[in-house]
């Protein structure tokens, strides 16, 4: 999965350093990231030496620090506009394109994971410029990844939204779905955010009932995954259908929800996501 970057190690301790000219910098605009595609197809992110603007330290992978270039409110960072590197080389490309790159010349897994996690932090910094309690500008703590209000003392930590990915099993069949109205058209599993006051197990039972009209039992944990592009910590669970297995699909959320025989489950080429990982576990009989 995307976080499995061994032998490299992700260091999320907040120990800021000054950027060296060759350090990678992420610049985001909506769900796009500034990058160049070299003639051989390689995706290259800009380097600190190409920026005139102050950069925010993010984290390290091994000894390599990563930085964020955060626009001021209302400021649009455009390539070639002075603050950013050469407009002829860089362009904003979809985050999904970086993440889905299975091209051997594409970004390595550590860079993909860094990009996703940087987007998560970008969203946090971008949404927390002012104190939500008293409206004063927030200041970054020197000691940890935390924003503090100098006026009222409000402390703001990165927001992580837990969500579930659910593989519902009925004997030799897996409940597979396709989303309605999303860019991603491939197969998925039942998924949803944990809501206030719920356990992960409550979320699993509620989401499967809401999206497919099926009751479930025998829930078991599979794995978890940080999924920065949606600010999530995903929790993967397998469970079994309980009672009536006829599907009553939520047509607002899904365009398809069907039982798929194990032999007919498509091979998932995307091995970066927990969803792909779980579908592969089922397809190859390793879900138990
Ligand atoms: Zn305040």
Question: What is this structure's SSE topology?
Answer:
Elements: E1 10-11, E2 24-26, E3 28-29, E4 32-37, E5 43-44, E6 56-61, E7 64-68, E8 91-94, H1 95-99, H2 109-127, E9 139-140, E10 147-148, E11 155-156, E12 161-170, E13 173-179, E14 190-193, H3 200-212, E15 215-227, E16 232-242, E17 254-261, H4 274-283
Parallel strand pairs: 2-7, 12-16
Antiparallel strand pairs: 1-6, 3-4, 4-5, 4-8, 6-7, 9-10, 10-11, 12-13, 12-14, 13-17, 15-16
Zinc ion (ZN) binds next to loops.
Summed up:
It is built from four helices and 17 strands. It has 288 residues and is an alpha+beta fold.
Describe this structure in words.
This protein has 288 residues and is of the alpha+beta class. Helices cover 16% and strands 31% of the residues. The two termini are 19 Å apart. It folds into two domains: 10-127, Nucleoside Triphosphate Pyrophosphohydrolase, CATH 3.90.79; 161-283, Alpha-Beta Complex (Nucleoside Triphosphate Pyrophosphohydrolase), CATH 3.90.79.10. It has four helices and 17 strands. Strands 12, 13, 14, 15, 16 and 17 form a six-stranded mixed beta sheet that branches. The radius of gyration is 21 Å and the shape is globular. The model has no long low-confidence stretch (mean pLDDT 92). The chain binds zinc ion. Zinc ion (ZN) binds at residues 131, 133-134, 136, 149, 151-152, 154.
